[in-house]
Design a protein that fits this description.
Number of helices: 10
CATH topology of the largest domain: paralog of FGE (formylglycine-generating enzyme)
Strand order of the largest sheet: 10-9-8-11
Structural class: alpha+beta
Number of strands: 12
Shape: globular
Number of domains: 2
Radius of gyration: 21 Å
Bound molecules: N,N,N-trimethyl-histidine, fe (iii) ion
Order of helices and strands: HHHHHHEEEEHHEEEHHEEEEE
Distance between the termini: 34 Å
Strand content: 5-15%
CATH superfamily of the largest domain: paralog of FGE (formylglycine-generating enzyme)
CATH architecture of the largest domain: Alpha-Beta Complex
């Protein structure tokens, strides 16, 4: 949730500051070389995300609101996410960690000065209820989760984190009916969560908790990865290519987590599974993935335990709701609409509460598993 009064300048300044402290704390264990290493083609070097956080803030606050010149001339070429693929960012002439920290500080000074006289109670939708400051705060919080994905892949020891075990069993039933989804009034909601609208749903059941490591282990041991009937064509192709036999970082009842080998807790939600694995597991269990709107209706009805431990894959492609319009820029959501991506719901242990609201929609390619994603099954009634 945004601060109780989102239009209070002090509340916004406090959230900006808290986000920044958390970013620096997350990266504190790394030396310069580790920060500059391209650990995986799937992820940027840590120092790219760091400077990109400042770049995004400068674009929206200093430049757009404050009408000031960019603080970094090369910003658009180096730190616009559309300028270069993640895999190649290690080769770019990036700011070194000290220069990146200094850039963030200079951007932040301008942000705080702009915040002092921004008209937060006017009609401009960019400013109303602190929206654009909320955008910048949420963006930094989202990149903290991206940083944790990179840190997990690096194998460098780090405090990191983990999903908590979830004990509830069984499923809850949702009656056929007309339900509200999306939002008009969450002050910091992204364009893709808007507008609020109603949907007709057929009756369905959804599990009380996400699939656990012991449940997923049973699927693995029973030959889930070699039973072709469980996989879609795309899933089979992915499986062969990845040589997949278990979730990323997972072997024989142990998990390699942030550089340490740990036993798997049987009630911990499984994570680091792709959409294809989620789908094959659901088929094996005689169930299916929920659609994102089924998920949202069940979540709003209070039926789901363990929300916020792992992102939950849904069967829904990422598209705009009826009457969607891009705001404040098409590159956040709209350019990703189509059937290439699947929606994930709920948030993970690495997501900040500001991000993990019931209407929030995350998306990724169905083959990705560096994200902290698991699955919750559903079935028709
Ligand atoms: C919503 C997680 C898919 O990382 O691409 C960060 C979030 N957008 N900077 C992403 C985002 C711009 C986005 N996801
Ligand atoms: Fe970003």
């Amino acid at each position: 949730m945004p601060p109780a009064s989102t239009d209070s300048r002090t509340a916004l300044a406090t959230e900006l500051d808290a986000a920044r402290h958390a970013t620096h704390a997350l990266l504190a264990p790394f030396d310069d070389e580790e920060l500059q290493t391209q650990w995986s083609p799937l992820q940027s070097p840590l120092v790219w995300d760091l400077a990109h956080i400042g770049y995004f803030e400068d674009v929206w606050i200093g430049q757009r609101l404050g009408r000031l010149d960019p603080l970094l001339a090369e910003g658009d070429d180096l730190y616009d996410a559309f300028a270069h693929e993640r895999a190649g960012r290690g080769e770019l002439p990036l700011l070194d960690p000290a220069a990146a920290r200094d850039y963030l500080e200079r951007v932040r000074d301008r942000t705080l000065r702009t915040l002092e006289d921004a008209p937060l109670d006017g009609e401009d939708p960019l400013l109303r209820r602190g929206f654009v400051f909320g955008l910048v705060i949420q963006h930094e919080r989202q990149h903290q989760e991206t940083l944790l994905q990179t840190i997990q892949l690096s194998g460098v020891p780090h405090p990191g984190g983990a999903p908590q075990p979830v004990l509830s069993e069984g499923e809850s039933k949702v009656d056929a009916g007309t339900y509200s989804v999306g939002t008009d009034d969450a002050p910091w909601a992204y364009d893709n969560e808007r507008p609020a609208h109603t949907v007709e749903l057929a009756a369905f059941a959804i599990d009380a908790r996400p699939v656990t490591t012991v449940e997923f282990g049973a699927f693995v041991e029973s030959g889930g990865y070699v039973d072709e009937r469980l996989w879609s064509d795309e899933g089979r192709a992915w499986c062969a290519e990845e040589n997949a036999t278990a979730p990323l970082h997972w072997e024989d009842g142990t998990v390699t987590r942030f550089g340490r080998d740990e036993p798997l807790d049987p009630d911990e939600p499984v994570q680091h599974i792709s959409f294809h694995e989620a789908e094959a597991y659901a088929r094996w269990a005689g169930k299916r993935l929920p659609t994102e709107l089924e998920w949202e209706v069940a979540a709003r009805g209070g039926s789901l335990d363990g929300i916020g431990e792992v992102w939950e894959w849904t069967s829904s492609p990422f598209t705009g709701y009826p009457n969607f319009y891009a705001f404040p820029y098409p590159e956040y959501s709209e350019v990703f609409f189509g059937d290439e991506y699947r929606v994930l719901r709920g948030g993970s242990w690495a997501s900040h509460p500001l991000v993990a609201r019931p209407t929030f929609r995350n998306w990724d390619y169905p083959m990705r598993r560096q994200i902290f994603a698991g699955v919750r099954c559903a079935r028709d009634l």
